[in-house]
Amino acid sequence: MTATSTLLFILVTAVLLPTQLVAQDEESVNSKCRELLSCAVKKECIKTQWLGQRFQDAEVSTRLYDDLDSAINYGCIFTTGCADACSKCPLCTASRKQIVAILTKEPTDECPILETCALSCVGEELNITNVNFCLREKCAIHCFDGSCPRCKAFTTRVFNQACASAQFRKRVKNFDGRCHEMFDAILAKKFANEFSRTTTQRPSKRRRLHHHH
Questions:
Q1: Which residue in 1, 7, 20, 129 has a CA-CA distance of 20 to 30 Å to 80?
Q2: What is the phi-psi region of residue 57: left when phi exceeds 0, alpha when psi lies from -120 to 50, beta otherwise?
Q3: pLDDT digits (tens, 9 = 90+) for 35-71
Q4: What are φ and ψ of residue 72, in 5° steps?
Q5: How far is the C-alpha of 14 from the C-alpha of 83, rounded, in Å?
Q6: How far, in Å, CA of 36 to CA of 107, rounded?
Q7: 152: Cα separation from own chain's centroid
Q8: What are the beta bridge partners of residue 8?
Q9: Domain that holds residue 32
Q10: Are 187 and 197 contacting, i.e. CB atoms less than 8 angstroms apart?
């Protein structure tokens, strides 16, 4: 968990969130997780200063996804940086406890497509670095193609915190949407080929772009 984590490290945790957590009132979950998200910024689990520089005067692109991928450390959020705050957030607590289910190859069938892919990344000898790389290259699409709403919801929540803290909306060129709409636009760029082949739901395209003539 202390190895360099990536945006898609959350795949092996968000997949396993118990159903009862998803049914909780959204405002209640936001309240309980607000401290965690603030901690993630304060402890630099989310490298907001660096991301702000990378997003400055950039346009929505695959490169922005890759920057997010390298600047959000979920190992830090779960353990080394924000363990106490994580314990107060039901989404984080469930994720941290149940990551063992994937790492010990005990599937729960909460999100079967994503989970099957994640399990295929866990070899005979566990290597977190190799698992993370495999998740990024093979399984990312299944977090965002509509087959596992929990994964998309949690990663969007983390992105929104980074977006607000680093003021992405003021920095990115030719974009006038909300933070979650920006995330959808970035995903659409990153996974354009995969989305064109899948029959499951694509990310929302509710975004407003300025077109300069």
A1: 20
A2: left
A3: 988 999 999 999 999 999 999 999 999 999 999 999 9
A4: -115, 115
A5: 17
A6: 27
A7: 7
A8: none
A9: 7-197
A10: no
